[in-house]
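Mods, move this if it's the wrong board.
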Amino acid sequence: MCAALGDQPDRPLYLDANAVAPATVEAIAALLGPGHVVDGNALPPR
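Not the wrong board. Structure tokens:
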């Protein structure tokens, strides 16, 4: 995804709703900017 953005100044908001390693989220934030990354999860209601 990041390679497809090229040099475009506008970055999308990236939401990861799965369990990923913190280092992966940090790497994505380094490419998109920390204000454009949300690391969360989706849990069913109890």
